[in-house]
Structure formats: C-alpha cells, structure tokens
Write a structure and sequence with these properties.
The protein is α/β, with parallel strands linked by helices and 366 residues long. It has a single domain, classed as Metallo-beta-lactamase, Chain A. Helix content is 28%, strand content 25%. α5 crosses α6 and α6 crosses α9. It is globular. About 9% of the residues have low confidence. It binds zinc ion (2 copies). The site of one zinc ion has 4 residues, from loops. This is 3',5'-cyclic-nucleotide phosphodiesterase. GO terms for molecular function: 3',5'-cyclic-AMP phosphodiesterase activity; 3',5'-cyclic-GMP phosphodiesterase activity.
Length: 366
C-alpha cells in the first residue's frame, strides 16, 4: 500500500522551460481536492495541461469519473515547498501569482529562500508584488511562511503530512535544502533533495548530516524512497558541475549512506570517520570507543563484501537531469541516459538500491 502520490509536472534541470522541477504531492489516502503540496514549482499549469491532455485518465479514480483538471489541481494547492529560489524551481509559482484561486497559498522553505523569492516580487520591476509576510493579508497574495532549519523538527502541512528541512550545499553562494516528508498517521517518510553538490567539493559536508538522519528511518523501515538530483552525465569535470551531482559523485554519496546504514545495523555510531576504507578493507578507526573497539576485534571485513546489498529495498529516483545541448547522446532523453549510468555503477558496487528514472507526467506512488 503506497503512502504518497506524486504527480510529476516536471523533473528536468533545464534549460528547457517545458520540463522543470515541479511535483504535486498528497497523501495516498487523501483526494487531490483535500489539499496539495507543490513540491518545487518550476513547471506548473502549462505542463499539467499538456500531461492531462496526453493522459486524460491519469488522475481519475474510476473510468466513469474524470480526474481534476490542471486548473483545479492548481486551486487545490495549499503550500509550495521550495528547496531554493533558482528560477527553474519557482517559475510557475511566479507566473501563477496573479491568478490565484482557492484558499490562501503559503510559500515555505528557508528564510533565505523566501527572501530570494521576495526579490522577484517586492521591487515590482520583474513582476507585481503578489506575496506578503502578513498572515492577515487577503487570499490573493502568497504568504511567506519560513520553515525552521532545525534537525528533527517537523512542521505540519495540509493533508496529514509534515516536513522537516535540512540545509544543503549547491555551489559556494547558493544554499539549497533537503526535505523529509512525513505521513503523520503511518510515520512513513520520503526524502527529497533540492539541487545539491558533492560533499567533498563543499566547504562543509552537509550531505553526511542528511544521511545520518535518514539512516535510523531506513533501518527501522520507515523510509524507502529518496529523490535526488543527478544533473550531469558521467564525464563532466568537477569544475563544471556548478553545484550539482554526476553519476560517480552520486554513487560516492550513496556509498557514504551505505556505510552509515551498515554501521547502524552493527550498532555502532554512524558518525563520519567511524568506518574507514583502507586498501579495500573496512576497519573500525583506531581512536574508537569501547563499542567500536569491540567491532574492530571481532569484525573486520571486506568493504565490498560488507556493503553488498546494504541499500536493498531503497528506491532512488533520479531527478533534475539537464538537457543534452551538445546532442552527444543521439537525442536520447537525459533522464534515461543518466539513470542508466547511475544504475550501472550501483550494480557494479552491489549496494542493492533500485535506481529509477523520473519522467515528466509520471504519477509516482511511493
Ligand atoms: Zn535547479
Ligand atoms: Zn539550483
């Protein structure tokens, strides 16, 4: 039984304006009309109109009942959750601001993210000022409502869901966010990454913090779905990543997750550096606590062997793949090319996670 429904209005990373990050989210046990969370707002109304024209039955519960239209879906949105204010993540929210319908919609994210969005609205030069920080203002203005950036704090959203936000690196001056989305009744969660760069290229390893928090949820079987970007294909030089991941970097991040999962299952601390890779062997570090020493004395094993299958049961959805402007891949969609590259590396490492390509128009049940 799935917990979440995500309608993919767009999953690309640009530059085409037709397919940009935008997901409509609800609890599986609720109706779309009960209230939708707009998870990112790159592609919106136009993309949804096209998707529902191509797949008219996508959202219908029974053959006799037509599902909601694109305009209705937009009127059901109660909250936008935005990872960072780059235009490819907020474009539809801005374009729709003059045509808001339904209850007042809030824009939620870090304070810095909301201030970034406000620079588009407030001076009134780029777009009329159609948002405010004041809860008493009328429904036709978006309400900025910052989320706490505090580990373990969940903020209730509409439709029986809540969110916890953590900061991410996305280039030196561009912070981004990760969201843990929780279904309150079942306590099941999924993890959604905004644009993110590899930890080892960043000044501070923020991805490790996200993994550390995800691990107990994975081990306790509360979280089995991760959406994470992989903007570039394999072969892209580090100096041209611009705050994004490519398949080898993503696999490296997932290996860090795998190590933390294995450590948690062994009952040792999952802190960075506890498990170190030495010439193909994994050992407990020498400055170990008694717990870690016990691990060292009784268990030493081959890293490849030990991490084998450690992420089995985890589904990794690859998002934000950038279009192939040089046409190196013979017109193949980049979400397929990049997912295939990640899948091959995942199989090579034997970590066991399932790698899935996300396509515009998908209805994902997680
Ligand atoms: Zn982006
Ligand atoms: Zn970005």
């Amino acid at each position: 039984m799935p917990t979440f429904d995500l309608l993919v209005a767009g999953a690309g990373g640009g530059p085409s304006e037709a397919n940009l990050s935008g997901y409509l989210l609800k609890a599986h046990d609720k109706a779309w009309s009960d209230g939708i969370i707009g998870l990112e707002a790159g592609s919106g109304l136009g993309a949804l109109k096209r998707i529902l024209k191509e797949k008219p039955d996508l959202l219908s519960e029974t053959p006799a009942e037509p599902g909601p239209t694109a305009s209705q879906l937009h009127s059901y949105i109660r909250t936008y959750l935005i990872t960072h204010p780059h235009l490819d993540h907020i474009l539809s929210l801005i374009l729709l601001a003059g045509s808001l319908d339904g209850d007042r919609k809030s824009i939620r994210g870090s304070l810095q993210c909301l201030r970034g969005i406000d620079t588009i609205f407030k001076p009134g030069r780029v777009w009329p000022n159609l948002a405010s920080w004041e809860p008493r203002d009328p429904d036709d203005l978006y309400l900025y409502d910052p989320l706490p950036e505090e580990e373990g704090v969940y903020t209730p959203l509409h439709g029986g869901l809540s969110v916890s936000m953590l900061p991410l690196n996305h280039g030196p001056v561009h912070p981004s966010s990760a969201f843990f989305l929780k279904h309150d009744a079942s306590e099941r969660e999924f993890l959604f990454f905004g644009d993110v760069e590899p930890d080892h290229l960043a000044a501070k390893a923020l991805n490790l913090d996200v993994w550390r928090i995800a691990v107990p949820k994975i081990v306790e079987d509360k979280l089995d779905t991760i959406f994470i970007e992989c903007s570039w294909p394999t072969g892209r030089r580090d100096s041209f990543l611009y705050g994004h991941l490519s398949p080898p970097h993503l696999i490296h991040e997932l290996e860090n997750l795998a190590k933390a999962v294995v450590a948690a299952r062994l009952g040792v601390s999952a802190g960075a550096g506890v498990l170190t890779l030495t010439s193909g062997r994994r050992r407990a570090s020498s400055n170990a606590s008694p717990e870690r020493k016990r691990l060292k004395s009784t268990e030493e094993f081959d890293i490849a062997q030990d991490l084998l299958g450690s992420l089995t049961g985890l589904r990794i959805y690859i998002i934000h793949c950038k279009e192939d402007m040089q046409e190196k891949y013979e017109g193949r969609p980049m979400h397929e090319v990049i997912s295939e590259q990640v899948r091959a590396l995942m199989e090579e490492r034997g970590l066991g996670a399932t790698i899935l390509a996300v396509e515009q128009g998908d209805l994902i049940r997680a």
